[in-house]
Amino acid sequence: MKTVRLTAAQALVRYLANQYNSHGETYIAGVWAIFGHGNVAGIGEALHGIREELQTYRGQNEQSMAHAAIAYTKQIGRRRAMAVTSSIGPGALNMVTAAALAHVNRLPVLFIPGDVFANRGPDPVLQQIEDFGDGTMSANDCFKPVSRYFDRIMRPEQLLTALPRAFRTMTDPADCGPVTLAFCQDVQAEAYDYPESFFARKVWHQRRPEPDAQEFEAAVAALKAAKNPVIVAGGGVHFSGATETLKAFVDKHQIPVVETQAGKSALAWDHGLNFGPVGVTGAESANVVSEKADLVIGVGTRFQDFTTGSWALFKNPNRRILALNVQAYDSAKHEAIPLTADAKVGLEKLSRALGDHRFAAPDSGLKDNWFAKADAVTAAPTDGNTLPTDMQVIGAVQRSSRDNTVVMCAAGTMPGELHQLWKAKLPLSYHMEYGFSCMGYEVAGGLGIKMAEPERDVIVMVGDGSYMMMNSELATAVGMGLKITLVITDNRGYGCINRLQMGTGGAEFNNLYAHTNVNPIAIDFVAHAGSMGAVSHKVSSIAELEKALDVARESTATTVIVIDTDPYPTTGAGGYWWDVAVPEVSVRPEVNTARAAYESALKERT
User: Against a cut of 0.70, is the pTM above it?
Assistant: First the structure.
């Protein structure tokens, strides 16, 4: 057996560079790195040695560079992924939030945090967390609950088993998610005689699991017995590459489709059977259809509470759930009829089994009525003297967008309004991180989308609160020459949670700057973005916003547009109940009133 002597870090990066997908691309599209004492000498030197084959990117914050990696893989349907490395201690722990985000959203990313010395000679090292009762513990153990696979590399030869397991996890459609390889810093520098065969080109194919015969038989029987089925399209439709399959299925069998946040854009907004967004942030059209459905067919959805209206939405007393999902954990939820299979394969087989069976499509007037309401709230204001609403901002961005536009967001007010109002024409033109709803994902996420699809026009919708939490990868986008457009809606605080606080009977407290115990804050976002190299300016009206967006679209420069908005209005129409527990006891009558309404709503849960 031929061997090659390499350090463990050199072996790691050489292996990464030789893993491919079935499209002929290297599976690891690059490595994001912030170096510290726990990875600069080992991994840093190894990455330098292979820099022509494996690109290294320098981020500004460990969490945000991981967000960029996650957005990258999400935008291309998990076809490729990125690795992210940090030193031990704070650098590693900064990535834990991003690991949780990837875990919730079933997205592959390879985390390689530095770790303590395996030989324990210099213990405790700088930044080491010492567990008084467990000598094997380090800060990196925090990754365990938010990783699909976790390993600690304490010997160079452990890579021979750890790396194939890592790639098996990241490329498996059912188990897909983040992998953490905590890499002891002394081991990174240790040499070992690795088999040359370990670094041979390896192609990882996307498996498409077929349904079990008994599960499939039960699913077909449920479909044939249904009178008013509805399809809930989730993110798995995109990951499976099943958007055209879904369209063919609904066209043939005339089953209405409603979309989750992750599933939005699976079917064009103007398709006759797309009844719009479902659930808490849903459209009236989608929710009415879902209330009446006797068979709820989940395709690639994990049935999050925003989708189900905290399980109060599906009101038909005879309703059943059919869950087509590649992950058995998801297909067995809430006493569903499970159909554990790839979404594309499952839909194709179901369609063949149904033959020419067609259902009675819902009244198209539901859809028409909804979009009339949506168009009304997104229309440009006639009164130029009032603060614009978030809905009017969305309308301006919609009117300025083109077929190649990707609109993205993550947390705060915009996700709900965009889910309800945005008209997504093409698959993956709507990029929302709402599984973890992580404030601070937006700017880095926009960068990741642009890296995945440089030809797309990427518009990042971000509130002032999220922008303040994490904005530094704006400088990275400028430095890399990757143009994104940010629309910062400044409502002077956390407007979304302020409305939720009020809606549950609470007093306005500690959300908007005006209701905090600090002096009023007037942040110059234009100057801040400009200091990082972006072209930035503030607009005072929706008309000015549309003009600025048109200019930004034709520009090659990263652009930031700031607009003040009213923190109080929402769409008004649509939506559904969401279970947010209200205190049973309070001295405030508003809370007691809200509690009574809450108890009444609980009785409606199915």
Answer: yes
